[in-house]
Specification:
The chain is α+β, with helices and mostly antiparallel strands. It is built from seven helices and 15 strands. The protein is elongated, with a radius of gyration of 20 Å.
Length: 269
């Protein structure tokens, strides 16, 4: 058990003809379009069924759940600090060969953290497939008093493959020359949105959980240098009344080796 606190950018299929046609439609030169797409990374969005593109709903397979109570192996209890369970991911139900980071092929990933305020602690558990588990209670004794862990509403989430752009994507030489010349920034933004929507089956999800890809932070992006995004969770994706962005980053090596205790958690609000 690990404990923690056709293809562009590797995996997500992109219709190159669509990219070419969208570039022509919005007046974006071909070299600029190719440069932008090259500065992208694939991701998986986890969304409720009603927020999936209609074309993907018929064969949708559940892959995650918000909130609820954790099912843990014998001898494993709630993490120190009693942070709530915010997300459970069924790794075997995720689409394979989509991400450019390495996730477990099976078992469940359990994310414990506070999303309403800076948490005292955060923890990520990988429970291997076949492990005997028991659902834990939300109540516990502390100094002779009965307390209760925060339990968020359990909602089923479905995976949608998508694409993300580097926050510095418009600093590429071709793109910079286009914008510094007579290029239309609004047209470039419209081209990018069209590509992102296409990569997600027709409509890119809004507020959601995202695994892999580039972060979409509210402040400075934490996935810089050797750090890549493992997951980000909008507070509203867990609880409609919470307005935070919760990000987990680490090196590709730590993620692949499941050294989840070395990942870094950041909350923005």
């Amino acid at each position: 058990m690990s404990v923690a606190h056709g293809t562009i950018a590797g995996m997500t299929s992109i219709d190159e003809r669509f990219v070419h046609e969208a570039a022509a439609e919005y007046g974006v030169p071909g070299p600029v379009a190719q440069e932008l797409v090259a500065r992208s990374r694939p991701c998986l969005y986890l969304v409720p069924l009603e927020e999936m593109p209609p074309s993907l709903r018929e064969n949708a397979r559940p892959a995650a759940r918000t909130g609820g109570l954790p099912a843990l192996p014998d001898g494993v209890d709630w993490p120190e600090g009693r942070e709530p369970l915010v997300l459970s991911v069924d790794c075997a139900a995720l689409p394979h060969d989509v991400l450019d980071i390495e996730l477990p092929a099976d078992g469940h990933l359990l994310f414990f953290t506070g999303i309403e305020y800076p948490p005292e602690s955060s923890m990520l558990l990988h429970i291997p497939a076949g492990t005997r588990t028991t659902e834990r209670s939300a109540t516990y004794e502390f100094h002779g008093e009965t307390n209760q862990v925060r339990v968020y509403e359990a909602r089923t989430l479905y995976p949608v493959a998508g694409l993300t752009f580097d926050s510095d994507r418009q600093e590429g030489p071709q793109t910079r020359a286009f914008l510094d010349g007579d290029g239309d920034e609004d047209a470039l933004d419209s081209f990018e949105e069209a590509v992102l929507d296409m990569a997600s089956g027709g409509h890119r999800p809004g507020v959601c959980v995202q695994v892999g890809g580039f972060s979409d932070p509210w402040d400075m992006p934490p996935d810089e240098g050797d750090l890549v995004l493992f997951a980000q969770m909008a507070g509203q994706a867990i609880d409609h009344n919470v307005f935070t962005m919760n990000l987990i980053v680490g090196t590709r090596e730590d993620i692949a080796s499941r050294r989840y205790a070395d990942l870094r958690y950041e909350q923005q609000y």
